[in-house]
Amino acid sequence: MRALLLTFAVTLALAGCFKRGTGQEAAIRLTVTNELPQPVNVRVVFGEKETGVGDVGAKETKELPVRGFARGVTVTLKAVTADSVRTYTKEGVKLQARTPWTVP
């Protein structure tokens, strides 16, 4: 039992030694206003990298965290309708702490 507790304590201590991201990633928020009559899936595109950030319901506004990108990076925002029939994009968007986008 003592060995188990010791192992657990060492594991917790070591877990605190590792860095879990830059903190800057979680500070970027994308505020999406979906004016369409159906939900959309929102993605951020940078070069060949396309990252899903979340879904926004029909006629809703939602704040989505953008992870894996630094502030100031220029990206393309992409929204795909739930039925995958339509895709909306906005190119040349510079990511800031709060980045708004209205679809369409």
- From the N-terminal CA to the C-terminal CA, the straight-line distance is 60 Å
The name of the CATH topology is Immunoglobulin-like
- Main sheet properties: 4 strands, antiparallel
How many whole angstroms does the radius of gyration measure? 19 Å
CATH superfamily: Domain of unknown function DUF5300
Question: What spatial order of strands do you see in the largest sheet?
Answer: 3-2-5-6
**Estimated helix fraction:** 10-25%
Q: Would you tell me the overall average pLDDT? A: 84
Give the overall shape: globular
Strand content: over 45%
* Assembly classification: single chain
Total number of helices: 1
Q: Structural class of the helices, strands and pairings?
A: mainly beta
Specify the CATH class.
Answer: Mainly Beta
> Residue ranges: pLDDT <50 for 5 or more in a row?
12-25
Would you give an account of this structure?
It is a single chain. With 104 residues, the chain is mainly beta. The chain has a single domain, classed as Domain of unknown function DUF5300 (Immunoglobulin-like). Helix content is 13%, strand content 46%. The strands form 2 sheets. A 4-stranded antiparallel sheet has the order 3-2-5-6, with no helix packed on it. A 3-stranded mixed sheet has the order 4-1-7, with no helix packed on it. The radius of gyration is 19 Å and the shape is globular. It starts with a helix and ends with a strand.
